[in-house]
UniProtKB/TrEMBL annotation:
UniProt-recorded name of the protein: Hydrolase
Domain Carboxylesterase type B: 30-543, 641-1149
Key word Signal present: no
GO molecular function, one term: carboxylic ester hydrolase activity
Coiled-coil ranges (or none): none
Domain of life (superkingdom): Eukaryota
Pfam short name (any one): COesterase
UniProt keywords, alphabetically: Hydrolase, Serine esterase
Family membership noted in the UniProt record: Belongs to the type-B carboxylesterase/lipase family.
InterPro entries, sorted: AB_hydrolase_fold, CarbesteraseB, Carboxylesterase_B_AS, Carboxylesterase_B_CS, Type-B_Carboxylest/Lipase
Keyword Nucleus: no
Amino acid sequence: MGTDIAMRSLILVSLCFLLARAWEEISTDVEVDTPRGRLKGRHVNFGSNTTDFYYGEADIFLGIPYVLPPQRFKRPVANCQYTNDGSTLTVQQYGPSCYQAGKGCPDENSIPMSEDCLTLNVFTPDVTSNYKYPVMVYIHGGGLMYGCAAEYPYDGAVVNMVNRGVVVVTIQYRLSTLGFFTTYTEDFPSNLGMLDQVEALRWVKDQISHFGGDPFRITIFGQSAGGASVSAHTFSPLSQDLFQQAIMESGVALTTFEGSLGYDNLSRKRAQEICKVSQADFDNGKWDKMSDCLYKSDPKDLVKLDTVNIIGWKISAGDDFMPDIPNHLAPFRNNIPVLIGSMHDEWAYYDMQLMNLGIAQYDNYSREMFEFEYDVLGGFLAERKVDMLKILEDVYAGVEAPDYDHNLWMRAMSGAFTSAAFTSFIQRDFMDYLANGNKRMWLYEMTYPKAIGRIYDLPNFPEAVFHTAEVSYLWKRKKQFNEAVSTGYINQDDYDLSEWFGATWTNFAKYGQPYLNDEWPNIPTTGPETYMEITGPKPVININNGYKTRDNIIWNQVLVALHGDFFPAQFSTPRFSKEDFDKIKANASLQDGVCSMNDPTQQPPTMKSTISSMMPTTEFISSTLSYFSTTTTSSSVSTDVEVDTPRGRLKGRHVNFGSNTSDFYYGEADIFLGIPYVLPPQRFKRSVANCQYTNDGSTLTVQQYGPACYQAGNGCPDENAPMSEDCLTLNVFTPDVNSNYKYPVMLYIHGGGLMFGCAGEYPYDGAIANLVNRGVVVVTFQYRLSTLGFFTTYTEDFPSNLGMLDQVEALRWVKDQISHFGGDPFRITLFGQSAGAASVSAHTYSPLSQDLFQQAITESCVALATFEGSLGYDNLSRKRAQELCHVSQVDFDTGKWDKMSDCLYKMDPKDLVKLDAINVIGWKISSGDDFMPDIPNHLAPFRNNIPILMGSMHDEWSYYDMTMMSLGIAQYDNYTREMFEFEFNILGSFLGDRKKDMLKILEDVYAGVEAPDDDHNLWMRAMSGVAFTSAAFTSFMQRDFQDYLANGNKRMWLYLMTYPKAIGRLYDLPGFPDAVFHNAELAYLWKMKKQFNEAVSTGYVNNDDYDLSEWFGATWTNFAKYGRPCLNDDWPNIPTSGPEIYMDITGPKPVIRNNGFMSTDNIIWNQVLVALHGDFFPAQFSTPRFSKEDFDKIKASASLQDGVCAMNDPTQQLPITTMKSTITTMLTTTEFISSTLSYFSTTTTSSSLLFGWNSIIFVLLVLIR
């Protein structure tokens, strides 16, 4: 430790010395002959000591006039002869800066301002070199109203770029009113500042070879409005052929474009303010008075109003530079190499400015200030302004954020307005390139929290990575480094980061990619973006993590869906065809060489060298495994095994699949099948613990699975398998029933929408091979389903949640009995999939069961997804009473149940459940009883902070499309916008008057803005892969773990399965073969024989599938045994703030992502929807009904029941620290019950929509079987 501190101190002292000392710069004259005249520059030499801050040498030429002195409000004209008499022009000082508000640039009074400011500067390794170096042309930023070339001095450019083998050119262009005022006619032409830049680029193309530069290897780069300018040139027919590569730092054309976000370019406003010209006169071409005023005004007066200009000047459309808006010109861009990116907290720069000038104080940051700044940015939204404000506040500050949390609102403003003004536009720019097929793009985001050069330290936001943060590093700016040294803010990382920027940017200029190896992949053509996160001098690649996903969703999808595009209506139709565009280019090309027609050095080479990229020719070699060459049957040897328990003696079986681990099934275990954990249940009554298995004390044989609980269809797990109301059995698979060691226990709850499923679907052979062999006891069980398990009147006549109460009894059995089977009753992990996972989640909320286990795994569902009231659904009881027994809604709601009771008790159980064959929404868990006394939102603070493993499949909803197509109900051609809207009507009926808005948002976000109505593959993916996966699954998961995080739970791990070749699919969806469907993990976790055999028979299986199965088994049992999925730190837990970290299960070697779990779904359903509509739950659920005290009373009473059969069993006594000392009776919730009935009697539920389309029969197998 001491050595490390000493070394750091030495580094810091060395830096301080290097930066504080005066640089010794040796300068001599250097001259160059060019076709436009002889120029005298300087050769500068900083020495060769690379430990100095500045070192190296270069030839520099400062203040070259690339055009003739410009006439005010006229187009620039190329300067073809520097001096009239042919004398040498000395170019050894920066030219004057262009007029701008303030006292000067780069410092007050340091360099004069002038209208004759159109100069450029060249820094070259060797002006006489025969080798032609790549060229980097830099365009400065400043909102098109500030800035100058001298802000980017040659000393930093020489050491960090020129030394690396490039020629650097910096330019100036007219700014503010003098550069961007326009009447959209030749009287006051548009985009004069941009036309200046075009002339500078023409000069470089025409002249740079005389300075050692290669005119056919030009990279233009810029920051902020300079980055926007670079982007604009990629769209322009005048300039897009004048360079070969582009770097855009923190700005693209859309950022500074007229019409974008509703802004004009200030010309009309300035005409009124400066010359008192009315809007009518301006619009009608009455410009005589204005012309006289503008031409005679002092240039300082023309620009001074920019001191209060927050939005900057704008590039206009409609001239030869930009004949249309970028959206329409995008298809005409050249597919060149592009490097593009941003700072994490761009907007923080403006907050630093406000606070530095004393305009704003920390205490000003509040909801009110957020809304004030939003009024500036969001004025164009008109009637959608209130909606978008609510969305932004909920998304960036949080739902129900306190109004005066200053730090929260400072960060919210930075996040929201960084997205509005920067990153959302950057997304659009590179997405347009991707649409063109450009595969040579690289993306970055700088998150280095200690960046130097900050003008103010924001209180409680010291890590803000502000707009311009990278500039000091790239240009190695002396002023910023000296200030950092004087304040002690600098360290070795800063120096190294500067080196990284110089090397990376020049690599791009020299080789067309930022890294010479493949460590920085380009942006993929589909899927989440890969980008470089510049965390410091050793940046981190975020593979397929998505760049600023939230910003893209809010501004490019939600906003567009609600309001339409950023641009007003008059820009909706393209004005130029490709033919028109090419005509402008052809005419422009005549101007490109206007000064050099007789210069033979400027002729393009007669031959172009072709560099073909290497194509790897890796041969795929498959290893054939013996068990894949045949079916996966394995033989087992079975013998009886018995166990004595306090509830009676049980006879199970010891099964042995052998010890050959190359077999599909191997290992041995003691199994006990069909143990009746409760007495035979009475219809519509609570289950009662079975304290004695046989009346006469004889041994009960438990060697076969018990019958499945009644459900629609022909049986479970196979057709014609028996069903019964006496179905409440469980199964135990244990390594050794006689073991003195107590193994961790994994208790599994099956899925099926609370209406399908059975324990026999999860057979012991796979459980033994993949779970029990790894040192755990596995328990599976059954619970009542459908009408028999979830029908309720919210009273004890027909109690709520009977199926969940069955599960509670199974948990009590495990807690009470599992030690007799070799299990540890104090290490129980509850796990389940789909509705089974929703059940697991529900138990974490329930006062009856949350203390009966220590850990939980929820696969592809949580309680909210199957909860009454969520998304407006009831639990079908009222509907079934009417359909089965012809009971009116009025009789149901007023307690007239005699006729209904008689009907339901006498009815054949098959008839009670048969209607679930057309049930798309499943049954629901209800609130208001002792199992679930309130809705999950209100019970969340009462949950125990236990280890949680949670996750989903990438394309959950595709399972239902597979079902439809496998049954022949739907065809590929049915997948259209119309089908999307039909399915949305089922899921979204609760939205009321917001339904249309949300539909438009979903279509734009998940299918794309202006998606074609009949693109079948697009709409299949929009429905299956994303929109309804988010509605029904992942948005609820986000809520669940966010509630845990709010409780302070730090022991949670998250996953997403994206493995595209998963076996077990019901049907191969056309055009969507990579769908990762609901239940895709089950075949791997449970090593399901049927699915593996089918995969073998079709040749679909490979070694990855076997390895993935092993991974699931090892990971799930690691969690059960150790309370974490990985024993090392390779899988981090979910962070308490910031984007979620999760495991992307891409195959048997999953990848950690840190870009947020299904961020789009969370934003749309948990933030945008809540902002527009309110919460999922209706209004009467808004107030919590139970206090923590009430909750604990139920827990205390429930604890009496937990050991009801074990009071005389000394092995089951709880440790003294966990014993309850207070027992009180349960509270009733009649008020809650009556309000629930009232709501569901008056609300139109989506159930009535299910019969509007004949094809809805597809839900016969709607949830996993």
